[in-house]
Amino acid sequence: MSKASSQRTPAQLRTRRRVQAAIALAVLLLLIGAALLVRSWHAPPAAPVVNHSYAEALEQAHAGKPGAARVLYQQFSRTDLSDIRRAGLLVELVNYPSTQALKILRADLKSPAPLIRQTAIETVVSMLPEAQRSLLIGPLLDDPDQGVRFTAVRALLGLTPDDLGLYYGAVQEAAEEYERVLTSQPPSGQSQLQLSRLYVNNGQPDKAFSALELGQKLEPNTIQIGLAQVQLLDQQGQADRSRQLLARLLDKHPQSSLLQHALGQWLLHHQQSEYALLALTKAVELEPENAGYRYDLAVALHDLQQLEPAQRQLEDILQRQPANRRARILLIHYWKENGQLQKVQVLLAELEQQNPDDPVLQQGL
Q1: Percentages (nearest 5) of helix, strand, coil residues in the chain
Q2: Which CATH number fits domain 185-254: 1.10.3470, 2.60.40, 1.25.40, 3.30.470?
Q3: What pLDDT does 3 receive?
Q4: CA Rg value for the chain
Q5: Domain range annotation of the chain
């Protein structure tokens, strides 16, 4: 031991030890900070903060409340939702289109869960015009899951070759596979209904008729099969047989809102608009909560220059379903036609509160 160190007092030794401990602690903190910094470089970004529960967000979106789009989009950032819950969000997304909604759809069309991919396909059909669907849905014609492939076929069936673009051939191939699977299964009313649609798409009306006749024998009370026969007869230029079959269905099911609505559409197609209004009105009376029936009635009224009754039907939809974007946009158009610009501004303001990124607001209606 040196002479200098032996001469240090106890106080000096304690001071030296405190300095050494402080230096060691500082070095340790620097090492920890550096490690955390390196880890943050490689860690995934933090998930966005979700301020609403799933149930609250779903209710807000369904009711069209202010901020609905924002809270709905937030829910899609969650990783703890079950497939069925995420599918429920996709159903509500239809009323909240935007660039962000399109990004969500693109991601969910690639989801590992078949249920989510199928629901995303159906959302695309409801949200986007026909000309834009094939680019999103087309890749799923080669999906590894058969159910997803066939959902994609149903979504694209009936589109024009121009709308299908590069996917025209893929749709035909997938439809042929769908047909083979359906014909290999024990027949049912629903399978024959799907087969008839595939046959119509392939230009085989006789086979479509046969499939529907078999489906009718298997499920004589399934109204959708009877209506498919009505539509097919009408498409083949057999209007009298089509009308007679529709009349028989109505005699058998006089309180069917579906048949009353179909009668109204048939009459509109055959330029019998005033009679069509009676049937469409009856359908709404039988099923007042059906927004689709009420929307079609509004369109028919408007086409007959009955603007105020048409507006009332759309107002009724929005009173029952404030999030119904399709009815809101049409009512805005009708009010603009009638010069009711103040009401137009109210509807646009409500839409902006619901979804400030709605394309209608971005483009200027």
Answers
A1: 75, 0, 25
A2: 1.25.40
A3: 43
A4: 31
A5: 50-158, 185-254, 263-352
Cα–Cα nearest to 175, from 189, 190, 187, 157: 157
Same fold flag, 185-254 and 263-352: yes
Give the CATH fold of the 263-352 domain: 1.25.40
**Residues 12, 17, 18, 24: is their CA dihedral positive or negative?**
positive
The residue among 53, 52, 51, 71 whose CA lies nearest residue 61 is: 71
The DSSP secondary structure of 321-350, one letter per residue, reads: -TT-HHHHHHHHHHHHHTT-HHHHHHHHHH
Which region among 43-47, 200-204, 233-237 has the lowest average model confidence (pLDDT)? 43-47
Q: Is a pLDDT exceeding 50 seen at residue 329? A: yes
- Write out pLDDT tens, residues 20-65: 555 555 544 555 555 454 454 444 444 445 557 999 999 999 999 9
Neighbours of 206 (CB within 10 A): 9
Q: How far is 171 from 177, CA to CA, in rounded Å?
A: 10
- Per-residue pLDDT averaged across 189-206, rounded? 95
Predicted pLDDT of residue 363:
77
Asked whether the beta carbons of 314 and 330 are under 8 A apart, the reply is yes
Burial per residue of 294-315, b for 16 or more beta-carbon CB atoms within 10 angstroms, e otherwise: bbbbbbbbbeeeeeeebbebbb
Strands (E), 254-307: none
